[in-house]
Q: What sequence folds into this?
């Protein structure tokens, strides 16, 4: 497929079983986000070096100074290293199997609740609270904005966003998705004032229950290799490291 600039500095630069899209990185208009995705029936593969160089040329023509990828497996990242990409972030990939419905003893008054899609407009109070918590939980450049959150919600065949409330205010959220037999715990964030109160545990429990209800036999999650707090929460639910992790790459243009 030829390059399609759908809006200024945004568009599809490759499509097929593997798709590549470019848009500005969150809160950094000089950095392009290269989102590489594919259908669930095929293993992701990248085109040859000439096409990859065209990707970089296109991003530069659209006014970007550098480009950063979505999370990639080491094998998928390999040809990008040859073009000058370097590792910007290392992620541990974990999984847990659940052949039976997970059951957790969570009091009803603190059970995380799903958010209706209609309450997630860009300017809604719910969206504002979620993005604020995300930005307090993840340092720049790794936090989300409203657009990237909605993008994550559409990255899987189905998804659900749960929020936790404390004293009537949102104090945490989890985004979980499902594609085929696999669930994806895509984002977990808790307000600093609610950490070590069980909020994260309740959110992960809600995500796993939803994942199993959608027919998933396994749920996976990734987190930074140095995020000991998150790793501890996931380990308590039986998540274990998979054979290989993920990397986010970056390259100057």
A:
């Amino acid at each position: 497929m030829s390059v399609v600039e759908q809006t200024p500095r945004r568009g599809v630069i490759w499509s097929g079983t593997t798709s590549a899209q470019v848009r500005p990185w969150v809160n950094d208009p000089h950095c392009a986000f290269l989102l590489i995705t594919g259908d669930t029936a095929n293993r992701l593969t990248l085109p040859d070096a000439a096409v990859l160089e065209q990707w970089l040329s296109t991003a530069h023509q659209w006014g970007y100074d550098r480009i950063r990828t979505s999370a990639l497996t080491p094998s998928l990242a390999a040809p990008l290293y040859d073009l000058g990409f370097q590792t910007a972030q290392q992620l541990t990939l974990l999984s847990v199997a659940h052949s039976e419905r997970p059951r957790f003893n969570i009091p009803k008054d603190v059970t995380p609740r799903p958010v209706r899609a209609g309450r997630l407009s860009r300017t809604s109070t719910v969206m504002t609270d979620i993005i604020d918590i995300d930005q307090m939980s993840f340092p720049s450049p790794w936090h989300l904005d409203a657009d990237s959150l909605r993008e994550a919600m559409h990255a899987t065949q189905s998804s659900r966003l749960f929020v936790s409330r404390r004293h009537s205010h949102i104090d945490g959220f989890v985004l979980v998705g499902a594609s085929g037999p696999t669930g994806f715990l895509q984002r977990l964030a808790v307000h600093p004032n609610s950490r070590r109160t069980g909020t994260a545990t309740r959110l992960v429990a809600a995500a796993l229950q939803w994942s199993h209800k959608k027919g998933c036999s396994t749920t996976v999650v990734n987190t930074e290799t140095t995020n000991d707090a998150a790793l501890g929460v996931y380990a308590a639910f039986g998540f274990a490291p998979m054979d290989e992790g993920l990397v986010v790459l970056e390259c100057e243009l």
